[in-house]
Amino acid sequence: MNAVEIIFSPTGGTKIAEIITKRWNLKTRRIDLSNPQIDFSKYKYK
């Protein structure tokens, strides 16, 4: 099973999301909405 970890934390408080995905042994793709250098137009809603 795969997961998408979508986070928004300008202060870097993403520990809970990391703990959950590691505990469940999920292959994870992380999308950090607080990163101003990411071009979010590549992500499409299906």
Protein architecture, described:
With 46 residues, the protein is of the alpha+beta class. 20% of the residues lie in helices and 26% in strands. The chain has one helix spanning 15-23; strands spanning 2-7, 27-32. The chain has a two-stranded parallel sheet. Helix 1 links the parallel strand 1 (2-7) and strand 2 (27-32).
Secondary-structure-derived class: alpha+beta
Q: Helical percent range?
A: 10-25%
Q: For the CA atoms, what is the radius of gyration?
A: 12 Å
Order of helices and strands: EHE
- Please report the number of helical segments: 1
Indicate the overall shape.
flat
Mean pLDDT over the residues: 79
Strand content: 25-35%
Uncertain spans, ≥5 residues at pLDDT below 50? none
Key descriptive features of the protein:
46 residues; alpha+beta; two-stranded parallel sheet; 1 helix; 2 strands; flat
What's the gist of this structure?
The protein is α+β, with helices and mostly antiparallel strands and 46 residues long. It has one helix at 15-23; strands spanning 2-7, 27-32.
Topology readout:
Blueprint: E1 2-7, H1 15-23, E2 27-32
Parallel strand pairs: 1-2
